[in-house]
Design a protein that fits this description.
rod-shaped; 57% helix; 3 domains; single chain; 11% strand; 18 helices; alpha+beta; transmembrane helix; membrane; cell membrane; YbdG; three-stranded antiparallel β-sheet; SH3 type barrels; 8 strands
């Protein structure tokens, strides 16, 4: 079997030797094919190892010399490792006609397999580039809190879809457009199958464009038990790390269809709201006599307030000839009002209260649990642990200060109260019984 074609000489190199040795042509053809296949496999393996080492070595040296992190992410996501597979693939494609020259019926199926592998390799390279791009964007100020994962996942899905079409076209021998046309009839089924993906994609766009949630935001979504920091926003889910370190996964489109609370505004302003009440016992509220006013004037935070108010009230009562033999007549100071003034002065001079945000001490509607005196202020430290300490210190002080204004804090009867009352009622029926004083 003589030919002047160099490829033919290579493909029949062993065949010519085997036939000259007297082997049958069929056996010589198979042995020739197996030997050539073995040589190609060794060459492909050796080339793959050498190409990978050279590619990784060169890319690592290049990465060390550059200041950008993008090439580091390319190495981390094995982009160059996938690129190194292109050279062995070229060798395989070029060697098929040589190795299987005596078996032309095998070439087309094997070429189809290599084409399919080419599609898979191309998808792997593009996905490695996309992952590297995602990691790099997350390190930048502009994109570090944006849902980059969602958009890259959409590109990945589109990439898989195109790759699937190409592989299907290679297997069936039909044009890609013919398959797309046939898929038109099944579009309703596709919409049903990819419903969550489509909803998630639309939600991701709306979340990003309306700046509703960013990575790192503290959100609260009681319906799904979420209360913590957003750690990831992707195409279908939002991951929230709760304060107890558990992870809550919420479908992305629920951020649009349901209500949630984003605490970003609080963190941005640097003030965290304190909104808590002290319930005063209504029976302890009274008008202040002159003696009471003089005694409370020794409390430094209300000294000036009492002096100013007393002058205003005395001038009013004198002008209107008010009979002050009874305190109820005319204008008067009350211990509850003075306590409110004290609480206002206390939070105004407290170094842990945000002075640029609302500071208010107000009286709420009396209830069966007394009259609430509510503090509406903002701590100047938004960190949870520090916020709790600031709030506790403020109310520790105010609760201890209540008694200096002849006020009492409302409390429901405790077990000891009920026991003393029961003993008192039982003992009142016994001659000569004297009840024990109740202990505070």
């Amino acid at each position: 079997m003589e030919t002047a074609n160099p490829d033919s000489l290579i493909s029949h190199f062993f065949y010519n030797h085997f036939t000259s040795m007297g082997l049958p042509e069929t056996s010589a053809m198979y042995l020739n094919m197996l030997l050539l296949l073995g040589i190609v496999l060794v060459l492909v393996y050796s080339t793959a190892v050498v190409a990978r080492k050279i590619m990784l070595s060169v890319s690592q040296k290049f990465s060390d010399k550059t200041s950008t992190q993008f090439d580091d992410f390319l190495i981390q996501n094995k982009t160059f490792k996938h690129l190194a597979k292109i050279i062995p693939l070229i060798i395989v494609v070029q060697s098929l006609p040589v190795v299987f020259s005596d078996f032309p019926g095998w070439i087309k199926p094997l070429r189809t397999l290599t084409d399919m592998y080419t599609v898979v390799l191309a998808i792997a390279i593009v996905r490695a580039l996309l992952r590297s791009l995602k990691d790099y964007l997350k390190t930048t100020e502009l994109f570090k809190d944006k849902p980059v994962d969602s958009f890259l996942q959409v590109i990945s899905i589109f990439l898989y879809f195109v790759g699937g079409l190409l592989i299907f076209s290679l297997l069936t021998g039909k044009e890609v457009w013919a398959f797309i046309t046939a898929m038109g009839a099944a579009s309703a089924i596709l919409l049903l199958v990819f419903k969550d993906t489509i909803l998630g994609f639309v939600a991701s766009i709306q979340v990003s464009s309306n700046d509703m949630v960013r990575i790192g935001d503290w959100i609260t979504m009681e319906k799904y038990g979420a209360d913590g920091d957003v750690t990831e926003i992707n195409l279908t889910t939002v991951k929230v790390q709760n304060w107890d370190k558990t992870i809550t996964t919420i479908p992305t489109y629920y951020l649009i269809s349901d209500s949630f609370k984003n605490w970003r505004g609080m963190q941005r302003t640097g003030g965290r709201r304190i909104k808590r009440s002290i319930h005063l016992k209504i029976s302890s509220i009274k008008y202040l006599s002159q003696q009471d006013i003089e005694r409370m004037s020794k409390i430094q935070l209300v000294t000036n307030y009492l002096e100013e108010r007393r002058q205003q009230i005395d001038a009013y009562n004198l002008e209107n000839e008010i009979d002050k033999s009874l305190l109820i007549n005319g204008r008067n100071l009350t211990n509850a009002g003075v306590f409110r003034a004290y609480a206002s002065a206390y939070i105004e001079q407290n170094q842990f209260v945000h002075k640029e945000l609302t500071m208010m001490v107000r009286q709420l509607e009396p209830t069966t649990t007394g009259m609430p005196i509510e503090l509406y202020v903002f701590a100047n430290d938004v960190r949870w642990a520090y916020y709790e300490v600031i709030m506790a210190d403020i109310f520790d002080h105010l609760l201890a200060a209540v008694k200096y204004f002849d006020l009492e804090v409302f409390e429901h009867p405790a077990a000891d109260d009920m026991r003393h009352l029961s003993n008192a009622l039982a003992g009142s029926r016994m001659p000569g019984y004297m009840p024990e004083p109740m202990q505070n």
